[in-house]
Amino acid sequence: MPNRVVPETIYLDDSTAAALLPPRPARGHKGTFGKLLVLAGSVDYAGAALLVCTAAGRAGAGLVTLATPESLQPLFAAKVVEATTLSLPEDAVEEVDPEEALARILDHDHDALVVGPGLKPSLSMTELIRGLLGPDEDGDPMPAVLDAEALRSLATVDGWPAEVAARCVLTPHVGEFMRLRAADGVDPEKLGDLVFDDARRLAAARDAAREWGQVVVLKGARTVIADRDGSVAVSPFENAALASAGTGDVLAGTIGALLAQGLGTFAAAQLGVYLHAMAGEAVRDRLGDAGLMASDLTPELPLARKRLAALPGAGSAAGTASGAKSIRR
């Protein structure tokens, strides 16, 4: 068997991130800049949904809609001021009816999805997630960011990669990543140290992305972004201030917004990770390496984008990184 070619590793910096910025035409409108549908949140984790939606708006999405079980819709509608809501039919309180909920989501106009942050674990939610990511009779499923409960749900499904037709960005922390690999039959002990050993982190993310056929964002210091073709990008940032609840929800919303604006999964993941890290650096500069709250990040996202947009070559790779529907797969 011939040796597999290993693509060169990309080490992200301001210039490479700036080149990925999607265009912002002066005569654009909210439809121009993408419609993002977010399936997130529960009574116990309402904040996760709010953080995702706020981050998506701050990262440039034109319209953000939060899909939530109908019993929770009044709660969220009062909180997500700039987002709209989509109530999902239920079988019981906070338990979606998978078939009816899927039909309502598929009937909704959107360009990308974020699925998972703060969702209540249940068999019905797992069934809904599988339906959203599976083959679509009317065309390719919309690209999606999968985080938190979406990742846990996938880990319970035998042979899940074969069931996922959508082009996805998976955003696991190390524990979630190991759970998914264990579901593949990989002994987590053989993966080695995925917290401090950067070489092992890179290799593990690359192998998983190839096997799953998806983009993998292995979160942590020097976050690794791996594509299904073996391409890998590495973020240069290490920031203990980001070790705070909810920062992953902000990242999911940021990447989702970039998908909705037309970037492909690998480009959206790289730029989203970089903008999120820049926002974290800005907060750390003010507050130090402790005390950062996830909500501190969202106002910094457009400022980070503004800084990148001012650099020479900003947006120059947007065409080659495009995720237009015709070439998303």
Hey, roughly how much beta strand do the residues contain? 5-15%
- As a whole number of angstroms, the C-alpha radius of gyration is 18 Å
Biggest β-sheet: count, sense, barrel? 10 strands, mixed
Strand order within the widest sheet? Answer: 1-12-11-10-9-8-7-2-3-4
What is the 3D shape? Answer: globular
- Structural class from helices and strands? alpha/beta
Order of helices and strands: EHEHEHEEEHEHEHHEHHEEEHHHH
Cα distance spanning the termini: 27 Å
Helix tally?
13
Average predicted local confidence, pLDDT: 93
What proportion of the residues is helical, as a percent range? 25-40%
* Unreliable runs: 323-329
What is the topology?
Elements lengths: L8 E3 L2 H6 L15 E5 L6 H13 L4 E7 L3 H5 L6 E5 L1 E3 L2 E2 L1 H9 L5 E4 L7 H11 L10 E3 L2 H7 L4 H4 L4 E3 L3 H10 L14 H15 L2 E4 L5 E3 L5 E3 L12 H14 L4 H23 L6 H4 L2 H10 L20
Parallel strand pairs: 1-12, 2-3, 2-7, 3-4, 7-8, 8-9, 9-10
Antiparallel strand pairs: 5-6, 10-11, 11-12
Helix pairs in contact: 2-10, 4-5, 6-8, 10-11, 11-13
In words, what does this structure look like?
This protein is an alpha/beta fold. The chain has helices at residues 14-19, 46-58, 73-77, 98-106, 123-133, 149-155, 160-163, 174-183, 198-212, 247-260, 265-287, 294-297, 300-309; strands spanning 9-11, 35-39, 63-69, 84-88, 90-92, 95-96, 112-115, 144-146, 168-170, 215-218, 224-226, 232-234. The strands form two sheets. It has a ten-stranded mixed beta sheet with strand order 1-12-11-10-9-8-7-2-3-4, with helices on both faces. Strands 5-6 form a two-stranded antiparallel ribbon. The protein is globular, with a radius of gyration of 18 Å. The two termini are 27 Å apart. Mean pLDDT is 93; it is low at 323-329.
